[in-house]
Specification:
alpha+beta, 9-stranded antiparallel beta sheet, 5-stranded mixed beta sheet
Amino acid sequence: MSRLSISSIKPFSHTPLNDASKEIRLLRPLSYLKNKDIARSNTVRSRIGSLARRHVRNDSDSEDLPTLWELHHEKLPPEDGVSYYCLSYTWDAADKTCTAIIDECSIAISKNLHEALRQSQEYCKKLKIDQWALWVDALCINQANYVEKNAQVQQMGMIYQNASLVLAWLGSHREHSDWAMERIEELSRNAIECELWEIPIHRWPKIVLDGDKVGRERAGKLGYHLRQLVVEYQTVGHFPLAPFIRLMGRAWWERVWILLEIAVSKAAVIMCGSHAVEWRGFQLAFQMLELLALCLKTERLLGPANREDFAFLQSRICPLVEACNNISRTKHAITTSDPLTLKDLLIQSSINSRMQTTDAKDRIFALLGMAADQYQLKIAVDYSKSVETLYAEVAQAIIMKPYEKGRLNLLSYCMLQPKFEDSILPSWVPDWRRPVPNPLSPVGDSRKKGKYFLDPVQPTNLVCMSDGNDNPILLLEGHQIDTVRLLGDVYPLAEFQPADLEPGQIARVIEWLEQLMDMSHTRLEEYSSNVTRLDAVMRTAIADWEFQELGDNLQRATDRSTEGFRILTGIVEPQGRTPGECQAWVIEKSLPYRLALGWSAPRRRSFVTSKGHIGLGPESLEPGDIVAEIAGSDVPFALRQGENNRYCIVGEVYVHGVMDGEHRHKYFETWSWPKRETFEIY
């Protein structure tokens, strides 16, 4: 017998579902196709499933042979006693070099999916699970049938919610991923032993260092495991983070779909190569690494303060922890009494700019299935729509949603692109395909503590209409408060990279701050003294936000930012230190302010208004753009007048002396409140 010729097997085709909104397909595995002798003369001579059970030993290329499956239909939600798993993996539609056998027919699949299917079988074998079924979107949905695909994607949340387990496949072993997964297993065991999830983050340092009246035994265990990590760090001179970073840099973490797939699941397992770690343990492992960074920051554990070690680790650990926490925050919100709306989910997913989709429409559809307001918004999954039509419909549904507090903060994600004329999206519709800077508005970002107090008045009238050419126009109430007169440079660093700046990068940041200081020499009375002027510059550059001393929450700027700003700009200089010590001192002491700059300033530029206020706005800002207060928004916006007395949104702006309503004091004094006007936004 010769080896199976895949071309001799007829191609697989899906049997239509009776009702695509109430039914799904499930795969049931047969044994591996490890028998090379299942066909003679390119003709399958008997049922493939029975032939596959003829095991041939020492099959060196058995890993590349197709897996065998049967496909059957099941009700959704499934009947009692029916259990299935869902596979979460990265698509690679261009690399269909492997084959799966379904119902004795062949279907081309990607190498990554082939490995995921094979390791799923191995995982179930290891757990001695004999009867199981698997849902895989690429195989269980007829991707060529848009009607079925629309209905199935609309039910995606229910599909993953009813699964017994989600198998998240990161990919095969490479770049020391086995070592990373083994360390993650070890760290998760340590975290579970000391019940880390019971310890609030703000109490971590106190419990580790001083113990605690409650949970002293737990604190002791946590302290022991952390000190073991610290000893390892001191012995080696660094903690080997590279394998973790590569693991968290894999394409799976960039998928928007994982927010739904993991967040709504009953349980999930992270799989990489032959290793598997339960999702909760995976997250706890990275929290242990974050705790290590806190320990390195603490003088009482390491002796002399080793702030650069902390900065080095924090800059690498925090993105890893954030990748996990971003999913867990969604999972927590969905399973509590405060579920997330589609607007919340869109904002949360856009904060992590790594998350992408193969199809831009999935930026909406991937989140719709777990949105608390999906039925209220009445947005149907329809892949036949254009991306522009879909995004406009979503924006209109969110903004026009009645009694929704903070709905206009969706506009914070609108930013005029340098080549806006190439886009056919209205300026008030966020383009979720493009990365945007971190928003100035705190609404929708749970990490920000505090807010601006610009305008507490909600809009009395929100209207979306057509201009006669099927172009949607949004009518917003508000009034003009100033005009952009002078522009400064765009912040020189494009990405969030506060801890590892090169000397040249620091020099460019200082030069940018010095330009802003020069621009602050205006006739405005509020900047008349040197103290108030420098305070205005310090706050404007960071939009008046800073990171809290512990953790990654944001708060309004404090004396920590003032000190960091004065040190970074050379206003305060070290005394009695060598040049090398001076540079290290500046880098260490300015870190809080550089962290704040890295959050607020990238892709923004400084400016001065006609009234003399300094501000921070989008890089596409131009002289003549008006600064408007929009009713119902926490931040002012820059608007640009176009034809027919209509405006486009340039982006949100920070204007010092305006953000907390200071400009309204004169209105109270004169009892002459400005009349609201209506801006037609195209």
